[in-house]
Amino acid sequence: MKESEKNMIYIGYLGPKGTFTEQVALSYFKDKKDYKFIPFPTIQDLLLAADKQDITRGVVPIENSIEGAVNTTVDMLTFEVDLKIQAEMIIPIGHNLIGHKSFKLEDIKEVLSHPQAIAQCRNYLHGKIPGANVVFTSSTAEAVREVSSTVGPRVAIGTVLAANNYGLDILDSDIQDQKQNETRFVIIGKESMQRGKSCKTTLVFSTGNKPGELYRVLNIFSLWDINMTKILSRPSKNKLGEYVFFIEVEGHVEEEDLKDALIMIRKKTSFFKLLGSYEVFE
Amino acid sequence: MKESEKNMIYIGYLGPKGTFTEQVALSYFKDKKDYKFIPFPTIQDLLLAADKQDITRGVVPIENSIEGAVNTTVDMLTFEVDLKIQAEMIIPIGHNLIGHKSFKLEDIKEVLSHPQAIAQCRNYLHGKIPGANVVFTSSTAEAVREVSSTVGPRVAIGTVLAANNYGLDILDSDIQDQKQNETRFVIIGKESMQRGKSCKTTLVFSTGNKPGELYRVLNIFSLWDINMTKILSRPSKNKLGEYVFFIEVEGHVEEEDLKDALIMIRKKTSFFKLLGSYEVFE
User: Fold this and answer.
1) Is the pLDDT score of B3 beyond 70?
2) Binning pLDDT at 50, 70 and 90, where does residue A17 land?
3) Residue A179 touches chain B, beta carbons under 8 Å
4) Do domains B96-173 and B199-279 have the same CATH topology?
5) B-chain residues within 8 Å CB-CB of A44?
6) So what's the pLDDT on residue A282?
């Protein structure tokens, strides 16, 4: 390690260059002097690296307004790593049709992108290039990279950042079916965050094989007047009908009421894990 | 239409031949005399055909014990078609590594399958063929078909039925990371089912932009002593933090208590849709 790299803070994002997570990493960690940005091929690789402290912090998507939970992120944070959510960032997702301007839309034979991006542009593709084959890739940026590798009647769905990186043209923009399309990203790391002015807390718990028990747990929040802002269900991976609930409430875990409520919830659940309290910026 | 086709009942399943839904369709509709099985390329196409009554009934996956809700099915039933769940069938999902016996596992360059099957075998692939490229396909059967089309160092993840259909070898079986892996399929159609001995009812509702309101709705079930057996959350597609809850309870909608509870829930929710009552077979 060079002397100059000693105080480096390593920030992981989902590569290759030009993904939405790179966009979030660059905008959240603005003062780039001490930051080194490291691309990872998958969410799994990134979270495992952060867990082993090969990187200091990482950026991963956790929820999209159309497609719902990003399952790998939620499941890894729940079952496989010991990391805290330190901040969140919500950005609008605009998909672009990216390719070589020399081809007409009606001649396009293949559309490449990540399955979530394809799903979000389903009606557009059906209407504009119904005959084109769909090819899934590991990220939207990877799709753009592949299309840039040869000149042919192929297009990718991806970001403006990726189109610029790989020297391709934007053939159409905002092509997602639901115009209001947002993704929530979280910044993760080993440390817990201090209590701030306005905080949120994320936790996961399981009620075992009684989905009806969820009502009792929500009742505890209600008794303590704690406002729930998010609830996602995920399978517990044991058997059908067993769930893990991923919940977000207002407040910091060091605040008296929330602390008391969580003590009680921990007793009433078969599995409980605190994923962190972090400040909310409006 | 031939005279012999007049009384045909058309059953839709997800093609090509050899998928899990074909397996379910063949086992649920056993008396094949009057049934004609029609393959569809996607869940979307199948549900739209059932909605237009081009087919009488259809089979689609709705939930997996590892990967959770099958989003397309849940979202289409909620927002885009008017169909009833008429029955359910749960089957164990065993994934197989399928290819040409002439190649050694260590020489395999490419693994093809549906993204959900790839996700379910993530650790196996990482351990056994770490260098192989992953290629996503639209179904597991499609992956098997592609691998069968040329002789090369490629494998697919799919069903025994598909391996047999396309004349390929089973190189390894039960390769999914979680040995207990089940998928729940539903039989859908236009008609509501009669009240039977032991029934379940599926409904979806939205609490608008207040996730905390979920507690009030679950309270209604609790007041009427109605047992909830399943709860899934999906985004409402409007904005982050707005959810649709997909809930299953014991009882038939014609039973007095459930009828009363649902009248109240309909009043307390911003969106409400009944997806059907159907008999449970143990």
Assistant:
1) no
2) confident
3) no
4) no
5) 122
6) 59
- pTM, 2 dp: 0.79
Token pair of B124, please? 């196996």
Per CB-CB distance under 8 Å, the chain B contacts of A179 are: none
Please check whether the domain covering B199-279 is classified as CATH 3.20.20.120: no
Is A233 in contact with B232 (Cβ distance < 8 A)?
Answer: yes
Name A210's Cβ contacts closer than 8 Å, sequence gap at least 6.
none
Q: A8-92+181-189: what CATH class?
A: alpha beta
**B201 CA: distance to closest CA in chain A (Å):** 15
DSSP chain A: --GGGTT-EEEEEESSTTSHHHHHHHHHS--GGGEEEEEESSHHHHHHHHHTTSSSEEEEEEEETTTEE-HHHHHIIIII---EEEEEEEEE---EEEE-TTS-GGG--EEEE-HHHHHHTHHHHHHH-TTPEEEE-SSHHHHHHHHHHS-SSEEEEE-HHHHHHTT-EEEEE---SSS--EEEEEEEESSPPPP-SSEEEEEEEE-TT-GGGHHHHHHHHHHTTPPEEEEEEEE-SSSTT-EEEEEEEES-TTSHHHHHHHHHHHHH-SEEEEEEEEE---
CATH 3.40.190.10 for the A96-173 domain, yes or no: yes
Hey, are the CB atoms on B215 and A212 less than 8 Å from each other?
no
B152, amino acid identity: G
Question: b vs e for B221-237, b when ≥16 Cβ sit within 10 Å of the residue's Cβ?
Answer: bbebebebbbbbbbbbb
Name the maximum alpha-carbon separation found in chain A.
Answer: 64
Tokens of A106: 């009606």
Is B142 in CB contact (< 8 Å) with chain A? Answer: no
The secondary structure element, H or E, covering residue B115 is helix B115-120
CB A231 within 8 A of CB B243: yes
